[in-house]
Design goal:
The protein contains seven helices and six strands; from the N terminus they run βαβαβαβαβααβα. The protein has about 270 residues and is α/β, with parallel strands linked by helices. It has a six-stranded mixed beta sheet, with helices on both faces. Helix 3 packs parallel to helix 4 and helix 4 packs across helix 5. The longest helix has 30 residues. It binds guanosine-5'-triphosphate and magnesium ion (MG). The site of guanosine-5'-triphosphate (GTP) has 22 residues, from helix 1.
Length: about 270
């Protein structure tokens, strides 16, 4: 009879992306925005473990279930008094910790049936000033490819009777404040082209391997492998149901701007998932 007091299901967002892309800086900013008393961005350092933080959505940001919340709406007052809270899990992006922590968390959350661990979305953070470097681009695209493959497998293994909700991906094109940053459109193109290369070399490798072993390698290939065209996020969505959106932003924005406004469009994406 204590059932009524059970904690409400929480909404979790998993924060992934390579080392140095700004995940911890973003998490820290969200925390600072959630508690106006501490409007100070702390210095970050390379993360070695995952951390879960509870933050709140700015009252002005609409949610998916309350899409048309307007300034005159009484629900805005209610949202100011009682903001919508969600959880963000910051993971370490270092190559050696990625598989066990980032991808590991994603796999665990993706199959979890418990409401408590329900994952609403994945935020994949990218340093858009670092993508001009070939090695960085390859590393970033490889990580994103592996993330999308986990989500694709989850979609394809869904049984029609027991539909679990979808897990969309936000590619947060961070560091748009830097003049060397690539705009979100080219970030998208570069990632798509690089994932295409990764996919093709992987397909070839798996074909060779399955010719030897007789195993079916198809489900380990991202996207539809009989599509002759190049990989792109739109085709991935059409073929597998995995949604990817690329949105620009900056954790560090110019001082004249309103505090934390550089991440507002990502918070809007988060809001639409809630
Ligand atoms: P790992 O923990 O190693 O996975 O890295 P991380 O993704 O947590 O990166 P972190 O948040 O530690 O940020 C790395 C560096 O990028 C820090 O020096 C941040 O201050 C800086 N940084 C983060 N966001 C921005 C941004 O929008 N613009 C600029 N110019 N720098 C940023
Ligand atoms: Mg970190």
């Amino acid at each position: 009879f204590f059932r009524a007091a059970a904690s409400p299901p929480s909404s979790n967002f998993l924060l992934l992306g390579p080392s140095g892309s700004g995940k911890t800086a973003f998490t820290t900013l969200l925390e600072a925005k959630s508690s106006p008393a501490s409007k100070k961005i702390q210095l970050t350092h390379t993360s070695q473990t995952s951390t879960l933080v509870s933050v709140s959505l700015p009252p002005s940001v609409p949610t998916g279930s309350n899409r048309y919340r307007s300034v005159n709406d009484p629900s805005l007052k209610e949202a100011t008094r009682n903001p919508i809270r969600y959880f963000v899990k910051d993971t370490p992006g270092h190559g050696k910790l990625r598989t066990s922590q980032g991808i590991g968390e994603l796999q665990a959350m993706a199959i979890s049936k418990e409401n408590k661990n329900k994952i609403r979305g994945v935020i994949f953070m990218v340093d858009t000033a670092a993508l001009v470097d070939e090695g960085n681009l390859r590393d970033t695209a490889t990580y994103l490819h592996d993330v999308l493959l986990v989500l694709q497998k989850r979609e394809l293994n869904k049984t029609s009777t027991k539909r679990s909700s979808e897990i969309p991906v936000l590619v947060a094109a961070n560091k748009q404040d830097l003049f060397t940053a690539l705009p979100p459109g080219s970030v998208r193109e570069k990632l798509e082209a690089e994932i295409d290369r990764i996919r093709k070399s992987k397909t070839k490798g798996l074909m060779d391997a399955s010719a030897d072993s007789g195993l079916d390698a198809e489900e380990d290939i991202l996207g539809n492998d009989d599509a002759q065209g190049v990989f792109n996020f739109k085709a991935l969505e059409d073929e597998t149901g995995v949604k990817v959106e690329v949105v620009g932003g900056a954790v560090k924005s110019d001082s004249e701007e309103e505090f934390g406004s550089g991440v507002l469009r990502w918070e809007e994406w988060i809001g639409m998932c809630l």
